[in-house]
Predict the 3D structure of the following.
Amino acid sequence: MINEKLNQAVRILKEKKVDLWLNFVRETSSSPDPVLDLILGTHVVWSSAFCLTRQGEKIALVGSLDVQNVKDHADYEVVGYVDSIKPSLLKLLDRLNPKRIAINYSTNDVTADGLSHGMYLILMEYLKETDFADRLESSEMIISALRGRKSKTEIEYIQGAIRETLLIFNAVTAVVRPGMTEFEVADFIKNQMKDKGLEPAWDPDQCPAVFTGPDSAGAHAMPTGRKIEPGHIMNIDFGVRYKDYVSDLQRTWYFMREGEIAPPEAVQRGFQVIRDSIKKAADCMKPGVEGRKVDEVARKHITDAGYTEYPHALGHQVGRKAHDGSTLLCPQWERYGKLPFSKVEAGQVFTLEPRLTVPGHGVATIEEIVVVNNDGCEFLSDPQEELYLIAFEA
Amino acid sequence: MINEKLNQAVRILKEKKVDLWLNFVRETSSSPDPVLDLILGTHVVWSSAFCLTRQGEKIALVGSLDVQNVKDHADYEVVGYVDSIKPSLLKLLDRLNPKRIAINYSTNDVTADGLSHGMYLILMEYLKETDFADRLESSEMIISALRGRKSKTEIEYIQGAIRETLLIFNAVTAVVRPGMTEFEVADFIKNQMKDKGLEPAWDPDQCPAVFTGPDSAGAHAMPTGRKIEPGHIMNIDFGVRYKDYVSDLQRTWYFMREGEIAPPEAVQRGFQVIRDSIKKAADCMKPGVEGRKVDEVARKHITDAGYTEYPHALGHQVGRKAHDGSTLLCPQWERYGKLPFSKVEAGQVFTLEPRLTVPGHGVATIEEIVVVNNDGCEFLSDPQEELYLIAFEA
């Protein structure tokens, strides 16, 4: 996986016309740079520079004690030092003479901001008598592309996480009954995870999140002692970690009342509006479209049907984390800054998660996961086409 | 523990005449600042400022979603924000009007370098139209004192780690026999840890480190398949983690040859020289003495007895990590930079770990742990007074 991402990074450098990408780090077990998960896969102790060039060179300058470990983990030409990294770093810069040098800091994106200020000052001290200090820029656009455009292996891992999550949703459908509390449903899911040796995709207090009925909490809350009653819509927001990649999915259940043989018209319609808004949004997903355009398609479908719009983005990227950063499918609201205008790219993996309220019953919401390809997108999750119906029990 | 450290930090600000200590962080689960283990004990998501003043104010500016969690973990006056941290930060600075502001970066000490360069740029942008930008300095001297000077609770935790380690050393003495390999001794210790639910104090590949006989590897190496033979000196370097604090100790064993009723004179003498060098070093430990002076006492005792000097420092601080940073008991060698001149302070916890080679037998080395008090130091580890002798077995 690391070597796939290293080769991809070189292609991104060519595309962005950056000559050298320099990641400067030290003692990464206590001061981790999040990008090292993508381009190294282990830790280093002494000050180290992981350097990729537009020409495809991959060079790691590391302390002598770290040499073997780095060689064992990633496909770098590894140069060890004993006293100081400065001579080998200056020698490398002199040889490459890069015009544009991207370094690992960012004001916008925490996942691209692994350079500490102390390390920045050390780098400036090293470069003070060279021309290179004036050629530095943030590598956030490189990291955004590298993190966003998933490799084949990364997509396989995300698919693994999706598969495990959907199996657990199926198990929930088999056991959930009116009278159970949100806590009890969450505990059932936690036990399933435990049996399968799976970790939750985010904060275990809210993963799974379980919401039942018309009075349930909003999104991002902990399960409560609230009981499932006939006539409730229940939804669950849940994902698992699989080989360090995660899923993030939502499904909706309806609990039949005594004598019902189908959900009420209002519940059925709410569910279908959500389902169809996701299909429409997916239909317009393709490389080059702005995130806000995709959001608008789903949002308009829902408001046109007479419902209140959802108070959040339509979807976010998924990867090593449930919120994997960068391009977002969000409306043009002030709090989202420039993100609504960022463009969808092939290889990005997004959630699609609109919601609406069915008065008196609860919240209808589905969260699917799609991967963008060259001329559209495809679903990685088997989409929920119908409400999961649970029979009445007194 | 956190509140103990917060009160201590205020005392350190008074001593260092710093008006405000400002720790600026965000998304600390992916970008941790090591000092938060001492002054917060949990994570925050949005940009946050943890501010301590010389007058004793403790103020946390955090995102609204982080307010309750911060309140639950540490004794701050918590101010939540929704849109941006900037207004509350500028308001606080205007009210306090601090002359000296220490912020969380350091070129020297990675444990004091939690500020990312992106966050530094954001802070500079916030302060650009104020007088405060010119009043910033590194907080490394504050963090060094705060991390170094252990509170009562921290010392109790270190004592817990020491107690568990010495119990395991006793168990080793009861089972170790000639013919066992270094691997087997290490496995026995790992099983003891597992039974007791203990984690190793450092890299599990080298914790425990086991060295037997005259041909064993130097320090900091993995156990091998080398067999313990009669006539060998064996030493073990080992520590455990107890409530997030660690021990780091060494003990020495001698394996009697057939017919021996005591160790050979050379082995006995080597052990005693090490033991006495530690006592002498401890006798001169007190607040204000330079680290190099303490090292010199032990080093001279060993070379005066005719042995080669040890190729490392006499001792380092112990705390949340086995190498807890800052003041070191080390010789005035170039690689140690300014550290030999740093002064011992009350409350610091140090190892004392000289070594010497007994030709034909192995390495005699003991590592004890002491805490500095107001007029000297006291041993936290029950010192090894005599070689641990293992009877001959064919």
